[in-house]
Structure to design on (335 residues):
């Protein structure tokens, strides 16, 4: 017989911290180690992407008793300080993904996390293509190269469970509530296509403050929009139920 | 007189691009000489700044700041994905 264990993932995005709310979000993380095995932050940690805000976020996430994995969001890029912000976070012990992956040991299980900021472009049938002006081609090819990196990272990673962490959305369903006209700036189906091709157990994203929490890729992978205004709570906790491999001397009858 | 749609677009752009706010998801509606701001932000100071930037971008209009401040509550029930 197999036994079931849960891998508990706490997640939030779009915390948009600034000096006026210093220390307040950290208070909400008290006891997170009782509720989750790992904490994932889906981008837009800052408001203006300044180094000062980056340092503040690093302080806010420093020394948590469980591993913290983060990606940056478009706000964190605004002041062209994204590398410096990522360095501050890493110095504080946060794992920052930039279109790559990491394996985290959670008890007996290996959790693979792949991701990055992601980007826009729109959704199948209503999206930009690599055609025409250089600016449009650059826009679409940026998303395409991100999706390709995720696909490669997902295929290469050796883990029991795989989660994708993004800022931009891979699907439309979790954008419901946002004006349709801005969907191309909120995500791209290329991200979902890449993850469906390589396989994963869960995709987490933020960015769409007025969107909806729950959706699914065309390939059936669960997607959760964890933007703080969508959740309305400090973080959500998703439990991946993992069937443990039966012992070697176990035979089915 | 400038069409209200263009004024609203200019105010929305100011809220997104002004260094004090950088807030993207705020809805701006204009009816006559009244300007309405709606949306959600994480703190009362950000709400005040948005009202101020909107006022500066359209000083001839009366600003109604109807933005909600979202307080993140304690984490709720876990979701089991199986």
């Amino acid at each position: 017989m197999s036994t079931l264990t849960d891998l508990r993932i706490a997640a939030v995005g779009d915390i948009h911290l600034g000096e006026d709310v210093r220390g307040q979000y950290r208070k909400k993380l008290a006891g997170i180690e009782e509720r989750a095995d790992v904490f994932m932050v889906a981008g837009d940690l800052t408001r203006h992407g300044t180094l000062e805000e980056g340092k503040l976020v690093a302080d806010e996430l420093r020394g948590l008793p469980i591993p913290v994995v983060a990606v940056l969001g478009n706000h964190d890029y605004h002041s062209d300080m994204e590398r410096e912000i990522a360095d501050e976070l890493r110095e504080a012990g946060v794992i920052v993904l930039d279109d790559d992956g990491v394996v985290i040991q959670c008890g007996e299980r290996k959790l693979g996390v792949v991701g990055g900021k992601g980007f826009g472009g729109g959704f199948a049938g209503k999206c930009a293509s690599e055609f025409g002006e250089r600016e449009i081609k650059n826009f679409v090819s940026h998303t395409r190269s991100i999706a390709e990196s995720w696909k490669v990272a997902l295929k290469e990673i050796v883990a029991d469970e795989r989660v994708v962490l993004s800022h931009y959305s891979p699907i439309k369903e979790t954008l419901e509530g946002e004006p349709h006209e801005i969907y191309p700036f909120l995500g791209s189906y290329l991200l979902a296509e890449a993850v469906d091709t390589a396989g994963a157990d869960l995709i987490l994203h933020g960015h769409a403050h007025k969107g909806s929490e729950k959706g699914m890729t065309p390939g059936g992978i669960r997607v959760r929009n964890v933007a703080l205004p969508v959740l309305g709570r400090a973080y959500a906790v998703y439990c991946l139920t993992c069937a443990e491999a039966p012992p070697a001397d176990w035979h089915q009858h | 007189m400038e069409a209200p749609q263009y004024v609203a677009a200019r105010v929305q752009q100011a809220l997104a691009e002004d260094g004090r706010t950088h807030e993207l998801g705020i809805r701006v509606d204009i009816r006559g000489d009244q300007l309405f701001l709606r949306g959600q932000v994480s703190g009362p100071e950000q709400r005040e700044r948005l009202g101020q930037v909107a006022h500066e971008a359209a000083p001839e209009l009366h600003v109604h700041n109807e933005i909600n401040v979202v307080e993140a509550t304690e984490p709720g029930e876990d979701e089991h994905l199986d």
Remarks:
- The longest strand of chain A covers residues 4-12.
- The domain at 4-243 of chain A is CATH 3.60.21.10 (Purple Acid Phosphatase; chain A, domain 2).
- The two ends of chain A are 10 Å apart (CA to CA).
